[in-house]
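Hi everyone,

Forwarding the result from last night's run.
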Amino acid sequence: MSVLPDLHLHYVQACQNLSQPENPFIAHVLQEADKNDEISTKGITLKLAGNNHLVPVPRVTDDDLGVLVSVLGQAAFVTGLDLAYNVLTDAGAKTMATFLQENSSLRYLNLMFNDIGTSGAELIAGALHRNESLVHLRMTGNKIENQGGMFFASMLEINSTLEKLDLGDCDVGLTCLVAIAIALTQNKSLKAINLNCPLLSTQQEETTVHIARMLRSNSSLVELHLGKHEMKNFGVERLCEALYANSSLRHLDLSCNNITCDGVKFLGELLKRNQTLEILDLNANRIEDVGAVYLSEALLTWNRTLQVLSIVSNNITGKGLVALAHTMQFNTQLSHIYIWGNKFDKDTCVEFSELIETGRLKSGCTDVAPYKVDGEIFLAELSHGLAKHRYWAPRCATVAPGAANASLEIVSVSEY
C-alpha cells in the first residue's frame, strides 16, 4: 500500500538512520515531488539526471542510491526514475537490482551513462527475470561489454513485461547481438530496442543476417536502431528481404553505416510494397544523388506510409535533393525530412524554401530554415532531427513531453 506523499521527510529520516549525509539535489527533487497534487493518483518520474547544464548538481552516488530506494520502497506513486549521467557503479547496480525484485510499481528506469559494468549488468538483468512492472530500461553508455549484453539476451527469453530496451553505446559484441536476435524470435513483448554502436571485429555482417532472420518471424518489434553496425549493401539487402514479410516494424534506424546507392535501391523497392514503415533514418551514409532519386521515385508513386525520412550527411547534391522536394509536393504523407550536411545548390534552397513558406513543410519537421542575402535564398541549420533528444531530455516546462522522444512517440512506452 502506498504511503502519503511525504518523500522529503522520509528521505531526511532515512539519511539520519543510515548515517548518510543528505544529497541536496535529491532533497530538492523530493521536495518538488511532494508539492505535486496529483502524485498519488497519476504517478511521477523522479528526474535525478546529473547533467543539469543550468544548475550544477552533486551527482548521485551508490550510497545516495541506497538511501533513496529505502525511501521509495513503499512509494508506489513513483513510477519512473531517471538516474542518467551520475556515478553509479556495480555496487549501485546491486542496490537497484534488489529494488527491482521487491518493487512492483516502477515502469521506467534510466541508468544511461553511469559506470555500471558487466557484473552490474548481470544483477540488473537477473532482477528482470522476476520483475513484472518495468516496461522501459535505458542502459545506454554503460560499458557492460559483450558478456553483460549476454545477460540481457538471456533475460529477454524469460521476461514478458519489458517493452523498450536501450543497449546503445554499451560495447556489446557479435555474440551478444546474435543472442539478442535469437531471443527476439520468441519474445512477444519487446516493442523497441536500441543496439547502436556495438564493437564488431568482423566485416562479414553476421549480426545483420541474424537480425534479418529475426525480423521474418518477430511480430511485436516496432522500433529498431542499428546505427554504427558497419552495415553495407549486402546487409541492407538481407534486411529488406526480411521486411517484405514483416508487418510490425515502423521505425528503422540505419544511421552511420556504409550504405551506398546500391543498398538504397533495395530500400526503394521495399518502400514500394511495404505498408508499415513510418520512419527511416539513413543519416551519415553515402547514398548520393542516385540513392536519393531511388527514394523519391518510390515515395512519389508507390509509398503512402513513410512519414519521416532522414538523409543528413549523405553527399547528396541539388539533383537528389530537388527530386525529394518535388516528391513532397505530391506525397502529403511524408511530413518530416532532414537534409542538413549535404551539398545545397541554388535550386535546393529555392525548392525547400517554397515548401516551408507554403506550409507544406513545417519548420519543426525539418532541420533547415531559409534566409535571404542580397535577394538570394540560402538554408541555415536548425537543431532538429531524429536523434535530437537521444542523449538528453528537455527540462524546460514549455517543451512538450513528446519532444523528448526521438521516435515521435510511435511506441507508447515513455518516461512520462
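Residues 1-77 form one domain.

Cheers,
N.
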